[in-house]
Amino acid sequence: MPKKSVKINVQTPDLRVVEKHKTTSYNDIDLCNWKLYSHIKTGSLWEFDSRDKSNGHSYDYHGNYIPQIATQLFERYTKKNDIILDLFFGSGTSAIEAINMERRCIGVELKQDMVDYVSSKFTKKELVVDVNIICGDSASDETVEKVKARLEIMGKKQAQFVVLHPPYDDIIKFSDKKEDLSNCKTTEEFYNLFEKIAKNAYNLLEKGRFAALIIGDEYKNSHIVPLGFECMKRMENQGFVTKAIIVKNITGNEKGKGKDANLWRYRALAGGFNTFDHEYIMTFVKQ
Question: Could you tell me the pTM of the whole model?
Answer without folding.
Answer: 0.88
